[in-house]
Design goal:
This protein has about 70 residues and is of the alpha+beta class. The protein has one domain. The chain has one helix and two strands. A two-stranded antiparallel sheet has the order 1-2. A hairpin with an 8-residue loop joins β1 and β2. The longest helix is centred in the middle third of the chain and has 12 residues, at about 30-40.
Length: about 70
């Protein structure tokens, strides 16, 4: 099973909150952080994509086996 991590960096004083995602390829990271961004006010001032953002997304397949 693949896992990803989300780090939320909140400054002690005034400043920008930063959200970092690891373990995800492609643009899926923006889907993962969307609800966090909205909960924090939805005002995204900038994005910095990591090299993994430009790699092919990994698809997750669930397998269900039914037998007699």
């Amino acid at each position: 099973m693949a896992y990803h991590t989300i780090d939320i960096l909140i400054p002690l004083g005034p400043g920008d909150i930063k959200i970092e995602v690891d373990g995800v390829k492609g643009s899926l990271c923006t889907d993962i952080t969307k609800s966090l961004e909205e909960a924090l006010g939805g005002n995204v001032t900038s994005r910095k994509e990591k090299p993994e953002y430009f790699e092919a997304e990994e698809t997750v397949r669930d397998t269900v086996k039914m037998g007699v």
